[in-house]
Design a protein that fits this description.
Layout lengths: L4 H11 L7 H15 L23 H14 L4 H10 L6 H7 L3 H10 L1
Helix pairs in contact: 1-2, 2-3
Length: about 120
């Protein structure tokens, strides 16, 4: 039933970043995409955490994806696109969180944990 693992992998093909220096974010974006574009996640019992249940911002995969979804829903609706562009252009730094949302990564992470 887990056909959407391919959605995750196809997102990697589309990412095609010059480097994978920020692998936690690369994997988080791929799982975020699986959540948004997947068509069979429910049937295979795959989902993002509904709320914070451990981990760190740089844990990657579902943890980072759930955080990215939270940021998009509460602070900036195109935040994943902003991150994707910065990774593509090799300009991503943690300062991007503040520049794009007005809050630091740590502030956003605390908001996510407390939501």
């Amino acid at each position: 039933e887990d056909i959407d693992c391919m959605t995750h992998e196809l997102i990697h093909a589309a990412q095609h970043y010059p480097t994978y220096k920020h692998s936690w974010l690369v994997e988080g974006i791929a799982d975020y995409g699986r959540c948004v574009f997947g068509i069979n996640n429910e049937a295979c019992n795959w989902s993002l955490p509904a709320k914070y249940n451990g981990g760190e911002i740089k844990s990657g995969y579902r943890i980072t994806a759930a955080f990215l979804k939270f940021v998009e829903e509460n602070y900036r609706k195109d935040f994943v696109d902003v991150c994707h562009k910065a990774l593509r252009e090799e300009t991503f730094t943690m300062d991007l969180f503040k520049e794009a949302t007005g809050l630091t990564a740590d502030e956003l992470w605390e908001a996510y944990k407390n939501a």
